[in-house]
Specification:
Layout: E1 2-5, E2 10-11, E3 17-18, E4 23-26, H1 28-37
Antiparallel strand pairs: 1-4, 2-3
């Protein structure tokens, strides 16, 4: 599972609605779908890059570092 910040609103497979900016836990396959749809954007995307656990801006990362 991967903890990511949404760039756009998204409704998960269970029908739960999540707003842009929400942090959600998704599996690798779902992450790939979200990235392909522009719902999650990582480094190099048009929105602020997701800092990740080892990214340059560790103050912006709310999750674990291990």
């Amino acid at each position: 599972m991967v903890y990511v910040r949404l760039a756009k609103d998204w409704t998960d497979g269970n029908g739960t609605k999540h707003s842009a900016g929400d942090m959600v836990d998704v599996d690798a396959a779902t992450l790939a779908e979200l990235e392909a749809s522009g719902i999650v954007e990582g480094p190099g995307g048009s929105t602020e890059a997701w800092p990740g656990p080892t990214g340059g801006d560790t103050d912006a990362w709310p999750g674990p570092t291990v």
